[in-house]
Amino acid sequence: MGRTCRGICQMHKAKPVPNRIRYEIGHKRCTFCGLFLSVEDTRCICCKAVLRTKARGKKDR
Ligand SMILES: [Zn+2]
Ligand SMILES: [Zn+2]
Predict the structure, then answer these.
(1) Distance from the alpha carbon of residue 56 to the mean position of ligand 2, in angstroms
(2) What pLDDT is stored for residue 1 in this prediction?
């Protein structure tokens, strides 16, 4: 099954905060939808992709 962004993530979008505190305050990133979510779930409520819960390395790319 392919993943699909249905736009639900837009409704759970995290508030704009400095990137370095994103994960500290519980924001999780959906790499598929390409935005931070403020949810308890470990998976994106939108596309079901596993959310990234902590920063990795110095740079993403
Ligand atoms: Zn989405
Ligand atoms: Zn997603």
Answers:
(1) 18
(2) 57
* Ligand with an atom nearest the CA of residue 31: 2
Distance CA 25, CA 2 (A): 30
- Residue 59 pLDDT: 61
For residue range 19-59, list pLDDT tens digits in order.
Answer: 889 989 999 999 999 999 999 999 999 999 999 998 766 66
Give 12 Cα–ligand 1 centroid separation in angstroms: 9
